[in-house]
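re: ur question from the group chat, yeah i did fold both. here u go
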Amino acid sequence: MKIANILILLISFGLFQTSANAIVDQCKPSALIQIGSGIAVSENDVLAGSLIAIGSPVRIDGIIKGNVIAFGDSIAVNNEVAKDIIVLGGSVNVSANARVLGAIMCIGGDAVIEPGAKVSGPVRTGGAGIYTAGQLFAALNPFFSKLHKEFTRETFKIINLLLIVGKVIFWSLLFFVGILLVLIVPKNIKNIEKTIFRKPIFLFLIGLFMLIVTGLLSLFLFFTLAGILIIPFLVCFVLFFTFLGAILTIKRILEFFLNRLNIYSVVDIVMFLIAFIFLCIFFNFKYLEIIGIPIMAFTGIVGLGGIIYTGFGYRRSQNL
């Protein structure tokens, strides 16, 4: 068990060290990030960087020198924004005499530009049921083809930062939740692994069906205002269990080969960590993506099917 503890410590340190370095490298543009409470930039305030709001209404009476990005709430501009405004699942209101020197993109809401307001760039809104399926696909092509030209590099840096933070959180949760599951419900994990190894093709079809249903449901939710906010949580939830399934599948394959070598004494946590490392290597190293992504896709879908079929291990699969 000492080896397992040492491995846990080393991998935890490595994960957070890598995460910290990645975030520091991407955080060069200064940005104010607010989660869950309202933001008011008063008339005499000047924010030199960008503003990112998550679930927070934003009122701008002062000056923002960077971009304004909001998720799940509204933005009211009463003075000046020097760059772009991006809103997902909310609305934008630019009052009379206010200025936006960049572009406005509003997905899942409306953009209201009052008479007398000045917006230098294009104003684009979409989603939230305003398109039919045919209109949607017709609109996406020119929209995305012009997106890179219409929005500044600073905006994409901030979006990239958010994606990196999300990736760090996802992999950290996968690591720690997986370890907890191996410790708390080891019998459930074993039931899933045994099921995976007995009929992988059957479980692959179950997992594939689940992914197809998730994709269709996400497409349906895309046409609703509330759905714009639900889709990320739904997709992340399914992806989490797909990645967890991939780890359990790889773990079971490794145990099979070790058993062939008459090695039976490896601790479950150690095997989980080794499988986690394999998945990280195959999925995150660009030179291994050609073989890594197909391996992850197959093992993940099989593992997802095993998790669903066994009810997360509460049901034994003796009949398989």
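okk and heres the other one u asked abt
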Amino acid sequence: MNNSGILYIAEAERIYALDVNSGDTLWETEVGISDMWNPNLYVTDNSLIAMNLEEMTVYSLENGEKLFEETGLYYDLAADGDMFYTLANVSSGVDYELQIISYHETDGKQEELTEPIEIDMPYEDQNITIDRKNNFFYVHVENGVLAYDKDSYKLIWATATGEIEKRDATDDDFTYDVRAVYGDNNIYTFTEALSNTRGEGENFFSILDATTGEVKEHYSLGNGDAVGPFLDEETGKVFVYYYDTFNDDVGMAYILDAE
């Protein structure tokens, strides 16, 4: 990842910081990481966090010194200043229970902020994410979005196709994948119908109020293939690419201004 002209790279045996202008290696970790570890990298004001589903290690941005490490089942984190907030599976059994936990970049674990909430078993672990935006923590699960107040840590609203803890509890024969991006005032979602028979079911693009979760606009995209939504921060555009393989292979892009 690139942060303020410094590129942080995780390889099989090391994590190192590279000056993108000079190409100089500024520091590298003395203790390598396993080639099976495959961490995601995040930064706070002064720390680099390397995290995967099983463990998390925090390093100094200045010199790569290891500050602390934790073990757990981590899906994602949201960084804010000198704090960061992990989204962890805290179930002690075979279930999946999500909880937001706060950490200081040098002092380590602070508080368990939210009550654990049960979700259905993820198909892909990387689809379980957390974002801190506006006055909320937005937690994305594979079939919906949950919004927590960033100060009280109370669950304000949740929306899902099916149920958060049982994604196949729908009114039809399909289960659904929901993907989301977050604007200042709106949340943009693409909902894909999943079926054993390709071409069945409808896919939807929706615009939700970011504060209340209320659906403001809702469009059917048919039963083709789509990717997105994507939010381009530089242009302020949200877009979805849609490919109608059942209607003369028509490809379309839906583009609108992000709000």
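fwiw on the second one: The chain has no helices and 24 strands. The mean pLDDT is 89. idk if thats what u expected
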